[in-house]
Amino acid sequence: YICSLNMLQINFIRQNTELIKQRLAVKNFKDTSLVDTILAIDEERKRLQFEYDETQAKVNSASKEIGQLMAKGDKAAAEEKKKLVGEWKELLQPISSKLAEMEKAQHDELVKLPNLPHTSVPLGKTPEENEVVRQGGEIPALSKNAVPHWDLAKKYDLINFELGNKLTGSGFPVYKGKGAKLQRALIQYFLDYNTSAGYTEYQPPHMVNEASAYGTGQLPDKEGQMYHVPIDGLYLIPTAEVPVTNIYRDEIVKENELPIKMTAYTPCFRREAGSYGKDVRGLNRVHQFDKVEIVQLVPAEWSYAVLEEMASHVEKLLQSLGLPYRVLRLCGGDMSFASALTYDFEVYSAAQKKWLEVSSVSNFETFQTNRMKIRYKNATGKTELLHSLNGSSLALPRILAALLENNQQDDKILLPEVLLGYFGSDSIQ
Question: What is the Cα–Cα distance from 51 to 36, expressed in whole angstroms?
Fold first, then answer.
């Protein structure tokens, strides 16, 4: 997944070195000396490039002189020049090899740099330091007999966690009967909600190649979190964002096609290495789950207005489900490698008495599109990188958990009115 060196990126780093280090510190990125390493490699690369160009210029100049000398009949002088040209050409190959090594070394270091956080990103290192932007919905008062979703799933025969463990392993639940039907109802509702807002639905592959995983920033940062099929060089997708955003990789789109709005349902696969304890019970943290994603590609000047529009879109979806929720602006230390600004959405589980993350809506600015070379021609005919954004709309496991827990009665589970046409009933009994 090696791509060509982006000189604009290097020039930006060179011209804004201290600013970049400051922004990386906001993201709690420890190795800011990496910036100096990249610039030192670039100095050596520039020196080699100069040496190569100078030597090549000598070869070109001497080659012309040889022709002129031969035309004059000065064969001896021409032969001397040929000897010099031969010596210079011998020098070119090792310089060229070293230059290629330096370009690769620089690229390998560049891809270790995360995206710079937006200036509005709050300082902080842990989830506890995220900023609550707003909150909505009412937290229900449950009866003293209320139980968490894993008990409800057993009571109403909706999800079999033990069977998933038998078939695959821990974190691979099996949905059954009304549980499977409710999953399907939620997926269809989410897709219809998104397409009615102008998103085009896609059904992408559930595995991607290295180039796709590199393009959205999963590689080289998240290798340990993805399921890998080494014999084929493929990765199971951690989110539909990866294949969907890559649809436009290496393309120049027309301005009148913008904004590009895409949505997709896929299963998602995450190793979640290191997850353990009470916070991973039931559907709280699983290795395979269903999610509906939204992605937009827009010009730079639109992207932050579009981020707010996408956040509002997800917020209204949560409101339609009647779930208590809050919106967080993530602090620098809790943001993803590729994001410039992220809003997290959490719903409140009254049975577990805790907030559960159900969506992230992020602006990646040009971080992904630079890797994927997704561009457009503006009104003046200039080719520019687009900005990419995405969001969960929505991830199902914790949505389902909150719906079951918050709507439980002694003898049934009530369902939101918006699901009636999809599920065919207003309750699970």
Answer: 23
Residue 209's pLDDT is 97
The rounded distance, in Å, linking the Cα atoms of 372 and 379 is 22
Q: Which of 205-219, 263-277, 356-370 has the lowest mean pLDDT?
A: 263-277
- Phi and psi at residue 30, to the nearest 5°: -70, -40
Q: What six digits make up the tokens of 166?
A: 């038998």
278 pLDDT tier (thresholds 50, 70, 90)? low
R_g (Cα) of the chain, nearest Å? 28
Residues 118-165 pLDDT 10s? 999 999 999 999 999 999 999 999 999 999 999 999 999 999 999 999
Against a cut of 0.85, is the pTM above it? Answer: yes
Side-chain-facing half-sphere of 125: CA atoms under 13 Å: 4
Supply angle C-alpha 232, 234, 239, rounded to 5: 160
The overall average pLDDT reported for the chain is 93
Residue 382: C-alpha distances to residues 11, 255, 375, 390 (Å): 19, 11, 10, 25
Does the pLDDT value for residue 225 go beyond 50?
yes
Give the whole-angstrom CA distance, residue 217 versus residue 121. 20
Strands 260-269 vs 200-202: parallel, antiparallel or unpaired: parallel
Mean pLDDT for 170-176 is 96
What is the CB neighbour count within 10 angstroms for residue 35? 20
pLDDT in tens, 147-158: 999 999 999 999
What does the alpha-carbon distance between residue 385 and residue 353 come to, in Å, rounded to a whole number?
44
